[in-house]
Write a structure and sequence with these properties.
This protein has 200 residues and is α/β, with parallel strands linked by helices. It contains 6 helices and 4 strands; from the N terminus they run αβαβααβαβα. It has a 4-stranded parallel beta sheet, with helices on both faces. Helix 2 links the parallel strand 1 and strand 2.
Amino acid sequence: MMNDVYEKFLKGSEEFIFAENKPEKSDIIFVPGNGYPQMAEKAAELFKKGMADWILPSGKYSVVNGKFSGVLEKSNVYDKEYGTEWEFLRDVLIKNGVPDQKILKEDQATFTYENAIYSRQVTDHAELEIERAILCCKSYHARRCLMYYQLLYPKTEFYVVPVNADGITRENWRKNEEGIDAVTGELSRIVKQFSLMLER
């Protein structure tokens, strides 16, 4: 009996954290800042299929590190000196066939909530009406990303396209401590951050 309850709890947590939708034609693709190229590569793939007119990568660098901490995969392909996550993600997009003039710029954000806040400022400044948006993010980061962007774009319909960047997936996260820490860490951050924000 206890096993059933536990399994239901885990399944519910998994369904919640690993948000995912089939993407539809949208106005923009958002790529929250990081040092992995896979999310921007996926955004480029969707763009080339005609899924959106604009891509907005967002990010300065992690507030924890105080500088861009480097390319975390495929550094042989993306081998420039990058000052910000945005510079890195822009290079990934261009190398994957996205025209420079279709890439918007946000290079001030240092954590996920700021990615959403500053992205909203950019799209407002560009006078873009965002009715539908695709969000390309790390698989277990999907729900928190979505919740932040929904806060800033409450009237926008979002399609989450999660990407496996560091090996932690919906299928395997329970199999090792790293995956368990990643998912429970996301649950904890969502409860803590949104409780504090929404109570104000």
